[in-house]
């Protein structure tokens, strides 16, 4: 078995995630586009240099850091929110935002700082208005 077969799943998944991002607002998804492009470059290096196994390790490490880690952290945060552990959920959301970086990561961190996460009481809602306006704080 050639090591190219170990890279084809990453190549397929990275391409299928990159195509919708290129069709949308590129400025908003610039960090994710660059992360997936670096992952694709590592996959192409693993395919081209088929005798160097280091490229396979690099491709898998980049895929785990840029694709799997933010998804796992967001899932853990959702689980903590469902069980009512708001402090732990905020921590996992902030970690997911830092791993994702770019506009999406900044948005998650800014929403946590601006709104303080979920508010307790009768009106439990998130502040999804413009985060740049000082009037639009959660109440």
Q: Summary?
A:
The chain has 5 helices and no strands. With 139 residues, the protein is mainly α.
Mean pLDDT: 78
| Count of DSSP strands | 0
Tell me the Rg in angstroms.
19 Å
Strand count, sense and barrel status of the largest sheet are: none
SSE run: HHHHH
Strand content: under 5%
Shape: elongated
Please count the helical segments: 5
Low-confidence sequence ranges: 118-133
Residue share in helices?
Answer: over 70%
Q: What is the CA–CA distance across the termini? A: 60 Å
Give the class from helix and strand content and strand pairing: mainly alpha
Label this structure with key terms.
mainly alpha
Can you walk me through this structure?
With 139 residues, the chain is mostly helical. The chain contains 5 helices and no strands.
Would you spell out the secondary-structure blueprint of this structure?
Blueprint: H1 4-23, H2 30-48, H3 54-83, H4 86-100, H5 102-115
Helix pairs in contact: 1-2, 1-3, 2-3, 3-4, 4-5
């Amino acid at each position: 078995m050639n090591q190219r077969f170990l890279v084809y799943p990453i190549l397929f998944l990275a391409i299928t995630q990159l195509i919708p991002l290129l069709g949308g607002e590129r400025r908003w998804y610039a960090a994710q586009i660059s992360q997936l492009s670096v992952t694709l470059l590592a996959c192409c290096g693993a395919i081209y240099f088929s005798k160097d196994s280091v490229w396979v390790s690099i491709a898998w490490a980049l895929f785990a850091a840029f694709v799997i880690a933010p998804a796992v952290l967001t899932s853990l945060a959702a689980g903590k929110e469902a069980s009512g552990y708001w402090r732990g959920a905020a921590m996992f959301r902030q970690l997911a935002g830092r791993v994702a970086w770019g506009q999406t990561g900044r948005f998650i961190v800014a929403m946590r700082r601006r709104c303080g996460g979920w508010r307790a009481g009768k009106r439990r809602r998130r502040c999804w208005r413009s985060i740049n306006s000082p009037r639009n704080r959660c109440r």
